[in-house]
Amino acid sequence: MIDKTITTHLKVNSYFYELIDTSLISNNIKLKDDSEAYLISVFTDFLKQEQINIFFSTGDLGFPSLFSLYKNAHSSPGLAFNEYRNLGDMSLFITSFFRNYIFRRHSLNNLDYYVDMGSNAYLKASRMTHNQSFNSILGELALNFKSITEALN
Fold this sequence. Notes:
The chain is mainly α. The chain is built from 8 helices and 2 strands, in the order H-H-H-E-E-H-H-H-H-H. Helix 4 packs antiparallel against helix 5 (80-97) and helix 7 runs antiparallel to helix 8 (132-152).
């Protein structure tokens, strides 16, 4: 009898750790350990059911409008840090794993739109936090945003 079992990573975290580590090393991108851990956390969180529901329920053809997330950040000053961070996270996820879809869509929002929105959102969030560690992580991701997404594609 043939074993039809598909072996996968036991934990999603280990899958993303391996993917991120390998991609960054092969593209000569050096990030601090905290920044790599943040990336793993972001990508793992997007696989949770509540994130999937948010991701697929808010936008045109499956993608949320990053402009609407940006607008939320401006309209809720008390929540701005989280809104900018979420905008950066969403943009990072889209540009890392759905790059080909963006190219095929031929919409008004091209890849540069998602990259610029994400990078700027992380930069803005890094300037809003008083937590030095978070400031460093988000600042590093803003600075290396395009390189990271290209490496993970």
